[in-house]
Design goal:
The complex is a heterodimer of chains A (184) and B (271).
Chain A (H helix, E strand, L loop, with lengths): L7 H9 L3 H23 L2 H17 L10 H20 L5 H11 L13 H14 L2 H13 L3 H8 L3 H19 L2
Chain B lengths: L5 H11 L4 H8 L8 H61 L2 H4 L5 H6 L6 H7 L12 H20 L8 H5 L5 H8 L3 H5 L2 H12 L8 H8 L4 H13 L3 H14 L7 H4 L3
Classes of the chains: A mainly alpha (184), B mainly alpha (271).
């Protein structure tokens, strides 16, 4: 293992030159974040395992073409995002814009409805998990990327191949739905 | 989408800027799903295989990069080998001809006349057309080599020492004057290269001059240049030819030149 302060990008370049210790460090840093992103995107452990493996496989295959043009995390998540999108295209259609707007209109709840009463930790986690599962993929993905990896609007937009305003809109819908679910 | 709810907008902006501590804390409490150990091992093995494959593949191009250099070196070595194999054959011919010079030192003056500067170019000029045309692949130096070799051979054949005249007729032949020799050698190269004593004998026979008519002083002068044994043999020949006076004079000369030479019995008491 290399120094914890070593940037991900340099680790990736070192691995591209054949340094396996760099890969081990990079993998240890990214495995949990990547796995959770995939798992929360597809909500299926078997599919998550498959996409997780495929993501690293593609990273390894593309290691010599890697250039430090963006954060390594963004690049890694972009690979996973493309795989997740392909998975959804194969399995089910995504929610349309109209459907999402209808949900959001129902979620415009008054401030008084925001849960002030204390829920148990378990109940709060369960509600959050249910809210995430209920989100359309694009909104859930944007939310997970924001929460799991700390990515900003620009990075999520780059990763998902959309505009920043679109990402902001998706996050707004996701945020509203989650608040509504937690307020129940 | 704008909900028009000021508090929602504030909370949302706080969420975007990472300031929604409550939601983030709740998110961190979600099950921290991770790949299992077998998945980790499989990923790391895949990474190692990929690197090993790349390193293995990288070795082949490096060998291929060296292959042209090795080939060039092999060609150079082959060329040098051929040069060493064929070089002595080219260089040996002049080397074999070269020793003729010291041998030609005791050659008779007549032979040297044949190789005079005026006659030397003639054989070369005649020999050149007979040479095979040079192959186009030869360098100018290589093309010049056969001509030089031929020239050297012609010169050497002219300078080769005449066989020592064992026969008395050859010994009696007077040395031709230089002008006559030049006149004889100039028209024809083969005549210049032919054995001198045979040519001289033929000339004498064609002239019909009997051996007895040769002038004695000339014979004496000529005998003085011979080896003692041949000189004595010449004297015996003169005795057999009834040239006793000339033989005696020649024997006197012999005694003067070789006072310590033990004469054979048949000549010791000759007076």
């Amino acid at each position: 293992m290399l120094d914890a302060d070593y940037p991900d990008e340099k680790l990736m370049l070192a691995y591209a030159r054949g340094d396996l210790r760099a890969f081990d460090t990079l993998y240890a840093r990214s495995r949990g974040m990547l796995y959770r992103y995939i798992l929360r995107s597809v909500a299926d452990r078997a599919v998550a395992d498959e996409l997780f493996q495929e993501t690293w496989s593609r990273l390894i295959a593309a290691r010599e073409r890697y250039r430090v043009e963006a954060k390594f995390t963004t690049w890694l998540l972009q690979i996973a995002h493309n795989l997740v999108i392909d998975h959804f295209r194969r399995t089910r259609p995504q929610a349309g814009v109209e459907e999402t707007d209808a949900v959001m209109r129902e979620l415009d709840a008054p401030e008084s409805e925001w849960p002030e009463h204390a829920l148990s930790d378990f109940e709060e986690r369960r509600r959050l998990q249910l809210a995430l599962d209920a989100l359309p993929h694009a909104q859930r993905e944007a939310f997970v990327l924001r929460m799991e990896s700390g990515l900003g609007l620009a990075e999520i937009a780059q990763l998902t191949g959309t505009g920043q305003e679109t990402v902001k809109s998706r996050l707004r819908y996701a945020f509203a739905k989650i608040r509504e679910r937690l307020a129940e | 989408m704008n909900t028009g709810n000021p508090k929602f907008e504030r909370d949302f902006e706080s969420f975007l800027s990472g300031g929604d501590a409550r939601l983030e804390a709740l998110y961190r409490k979600l099950p921290a799903s991770e790949p299992d150990a077998s998945m980790d091992a499989a990923m790391q093995a895949m990474a190692r295989r990929a690197v090993a494959t790349t390193q293995l593949a990288a070795r082949v191009p490096s060998h291929r990069r060296w292959l042209p250099l090795f080939s060039a070196a092999a060609v150079v070595a082959l060329a040098v080998g051929f040069a060493f194999r064929l070089g002595p054959q080219l260089w040996q011919r002049p080397a074999a001809v070269a020793p003729a010079e010291p041998v030609s030192a005791p050659v008779q003056p007549a032979a040297k006349i044949v190789t005079s500067p005026q006659t030397a170019p003639a054989p070369t000029a005649l020999a050149e057309p007979a040479l095979e045309p040079p192959t186009p692949t030869l360098s100018p130096a290589a093309r010049a080599a056969p001509r030089a070799l031929q020239k050297m051979e012609n010169t050497a054949s002219q300078e080769l020492p005449r066989p020592f005249p064992h026969s008395a007729s050859a010994l009696r032949e007077p040395a031709p004057p230089p002008a006559a020799a030049e006149a004889k050698s100039a028209p024809s190269v083969p005549s210049a290269a032919a054995p001198t004593h045979a040519r001289q004998s033929a000339e004498m026979e064609s002239a019909g001059a009997p051996m007895q008519t040769l002038a004695a002083p000339a014979v004496q002068d000529r005998n003085a240049t011979l080896y003692p044994e041949h000189w004595l043999a010449n004297i015996r020949q003169m005795l057999r030819d009834n040239q006793r006076e000339a033989a005696l004079r020649s024997l006197d000369e012999f005694r003067k030149k070789y006072p310590d030479y033990v004469l054979p019995d048949d000549l010791r008491d000759l007076r």
